[in-house]
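Researcher: Let's continue the batch. This sequence belongs to Beta/gamma crystallin 'Greek key' domain-containing protein, and it's 175 residues. Same format as the previous ones, please.
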Amino acid sequence: MGKITFFEDKNFKGHSFECNSDNNDLQSHFSRCNSIKVDNGSWMIYEHANNKGHQYFLKQGEYPDYQHWMGFNDSISSCRMIPQYTGSFLIKVYEKEDFRGQMLEFIEDCSHVFQEFNNHEIHSCNVIEGHWIFYEESNYRGRQYYLRPGEYRRFNDWGASNAKVGSFRKVMDLY
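Model: Same format as before. Here are the structure tokens for Beta/gamma crystallin 'Greek key' domain-containing protein:
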């Protein structure tokens, strides 16, 4: 079972809230989040309620301030535990919405989308197997987007405001 603890102040001080499952309304428990301890599992935390806004992947460890999880501010309002997955991985990415245009299949991480896809944009994708994280920049940097198995007909289906994807990786590689 996963366990994540949120603290209002830096360095694990101030009011805290422990969570063992998905939570879509953390702000009812604390007003700001400046440090986090992940005791078990991997998590996505979100800036806004209902898994909206900036997303951040956290694996087991300590994050003494929001800059350690590459946060833009101290606002965390929801979280989702990422299930541990040990099966195979397959994702299909498309250059256009609704699974149109050039398509490539990946079973491994991609550190430079442009080198593989000749495009900086992915407009739709189908996660066949596994859990993946898209990054807005190459080399797994920038804004992050968590993708579970399923169809994503447009980039806003995975929470992005544009189709720019610089890299992506399997969640298994992040444990």
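Researcher: Any comment?
Model: The chain has a mean pLDDT of 94.
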